[in-house]
Specification:
This is Response regulator. Strands 2-1-3-4-5-6 form a six-stranded parallel sheet, with helices on both faces. Helix 7 packs across helix 10. By secondary structure, the chain is α/β, with parallel strands linked by helices.
Length: 217
């Protein structure tokens, strides 16, 4: 059962989310909050698996500030940004804040459910309509002056695992694609994170962006 905390300043949005998620066998809404400060307190009390976090809340902490603080206090909890802002800059900032995913409020319900289930199992989720342009822009902005020395210490297999992990594939799926064991995938991923000095999945995604490792149709 995936325990969900909804943080949004609009009561109608919270009610709609609770109604939508309440009918799913694998999801339980354990609480609601109307701003970032209240959300942090509720999260520490309820210990949810996933926090649905609005970006723009006029009172208390905004969603990005709350997300960053929650990742410091509760790194095991995934923060999924749910917002109306279809804006690359907000997405960059959300990743920098440690969010595990970013979904538009205008997205189909099934996309939200997919995002929740993805981040709950430790994967990242970026809304698909903006992903390609986002990656292209980010690579162009970040590649100047980027050192490749540390990256060059990775083996070819480690680079493959890095690329697949950044695209959101689970360890089992990576193992199937590369025809290796799940334990071997876990070892490679651990080595990659250690060599590159990365601690979280959003950091891994950002690194893969900078290296141009993410590929899209």
């Amino acid at each position: 059962m995936i325990k969900i905390l909804i943080v949004d300043d609009h009561a109608m949005v919270r009610s709609g989310m609770r109604l939508l998620l309440g009918g799913k066998d694998d999801i339980e809404v354990v609480g609601e909050a109307s701003d970032g400060d209240e959300g942090i307190r509720a999260a520490e009390s309820l210990r949810p698996d996933v926090i649905l976090m609005d970006l723009s809340m006029p009172h208390g902490k905004d969603g990005l500030t709350a997300a960053a603080e929650l990742k410091e206090r509760m790194p095991e909890t995934a923060v999924l940004i749910l917002t109306m802002h279809d804006d690359d800059e907000y997405l960059f900032r959300a990743i920098n804040a440690g969010a595990a995913g970013y979904v538009l409020k205008s997205a189909p319900h099934e996309e939200l459910l997919t995002a929740i289930r993805s981040v709950a199992k430790g994967d990242a989720y970026l809304y698909p309509t903006a992903t390609k342009r986002l990656m292209n822009e980010y690579v162009e902005r970040m590649k100047r002056g980027e050192s490749s020395d540390v990256f060059d210490t990775l083996s070819e297999r480690e680079k493959e695992v890095l690329a697949l992990a950044a695209q959101g594939y689970a360890n089992k799926e990576i193992a199937e694609q590369l025809v290796i064991s799940v334990k071997t995938v876990e070892t490679h991923k651990s080595n990659v994170m250690e060599k590159l000095g990365l601690k979280t999945r959003p950091e891994l995604i950002k690194y893969a962006m900078k290296k141009g490792l993410l590929q899209f149709d």
